[in-house]
Amino acid sequence: MGVSWFSKKERDVAGQVDFDHLPRHIAIILDGNGRWAKKRGLPRTAGHKVGAETFRSIATYCRDIGIDYLTVYAFSTENWKRPKDEVDTIMALLRQYLLEAIDTMERDNVRLSFMGDLSVLTEELRGLAAQCNEISGRLTGCQCNICVNYGGRAELVHAAQRFARDCLMGLAEPAGLTEEVFEGYLYSAGIPSPDLLIRPGGEQRLSNFLLWQCAYSEFYYTDVLWPDFSKEELHRAIAAYQCRNRRFGGVSGGGV
Ligand code: IPE
Ligand code: IPE
Ligand code: MG
């Protein structure tokens, strides 16, 4: 397995998680469903079905161990380029997921929220998403953000448009724009930036995910394909994260 980007220290602690110092926010690019299916001689859509199950179990596990925020990239603004039957299957799986979530999220105390331009989704899907948002307002548990028709560039353009509109309406002014103010116009307003970004599937790129929010996230790549992603793999990612020295541009240990 291609794990050459791990440091020796990270290899030594593989899977040994310090549960008292977990990342507060984990983001995951759910990648590798198609290749998982291809390897088994199955249609790509079969990979998406198993991938959706994997998402259910990993999201539940993140809640169990006390992760505050989990943000997953489920469908990008570029994924519309895919064959219609694949897009239709992904949307049908999303519908199924939301229907189940509406029945279970209160019991599970998992909040669901969405990032992306949902305006192009079917009325039914938008209605289900709105129902999830409404239920979430009454809950306090782990917040799971599902990125659908999401693109980091589109999010920045959308934020800029909203800010410009506020300026035209006299509600804001260009000189008052700071990083903090701008963050308030993003889909992720009010949510801390991801501490750890995990990409399964072997690619080492962002693919237009959370361009603003990942400025100081720790990246973890693995060749494991998303449908095979397990609790143990999550442990490896968290343990690797716990070996990192986050300096945010400063120096180690906060010294002078
Ligand atoms: C990720 O898996 C799911 C989506 C992008 C919707 P892929 O479908 O990209 O799987 P690979 O990368 O082709 O294996
Ligand atoms: C990123 O995966 C998007 C999602 C997982 C939703 P892609 O499979 O679309 O990314 P590329 O094409 O490999 O960059
Ligand atoms: Mg892919």
Structure in words:
The protein is an alpha/beta fold and 256 residues long. It is 42% helix and 13% strand. The chain is built from eight helices and six strands. Strands 3-4-2-1-5-6 form a six-stranded parallel β-sheet, sandwiched between helices. α5 links the parallel β3 and β4. α2 packs across α3, α3 runs parallel beside α4 and α4 packs parallel to α5. 34% of the residues are buried. The mean pLDDT is 94. It binds 3-methylbut-3-enyl trihydrogen diphosphate (IPE) (2 copies) and magnesium ion (MG).
Helix-strand layout with pairing:
Elements: H1 8-12, E1 25-29, H2 33-39, H3 44-65, E2 69-76, H4 84-108, E3 111-115, H5 123-136, E4 143-150, H6 152-168, H7 179-183, E5 196-199, E6 218-221, H8 231-243
Parallel strand pairs: 1-2, 1-5, 2-4, 3-4, 5-6
Helix pairs in contact: 2-3, 3-4, 4-5
Magnesium ion (MG) binds at residues 31, 201.
